[in-house]
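Hey, why these numbers?
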Amino acid sequence: MKVILSILFVIVSLGIILGFYVKSTDQATGDIIIGLSIMTGAFILMPLFIYYRWKKRSVKDYMLTKENIKKMRDFNKDKKK
């Protein structure tokens, strides 16, 4: 998964760079290349990246429940001592 994300990031980055290069000679084609690269980054790269980073984590650990608030208070009390 990490390799796929890296390759996709390089492709999207090169697409944006190529789009700006082509835009200097042909406005419409450069805009299309930039737009497709941005859409690929937003709709393919970003969801894959979010899934890759969060697949082993629990959302419950990041929610403010009574237990988590108590843990934070206890942690702060121990830290001040």
About this structure: Residues 2-80 form one domain. Helices lie at 2-23, 27-54, 66-80. The two ends are 44 Å apart (CA to CA). The mean pLDDT is 90.
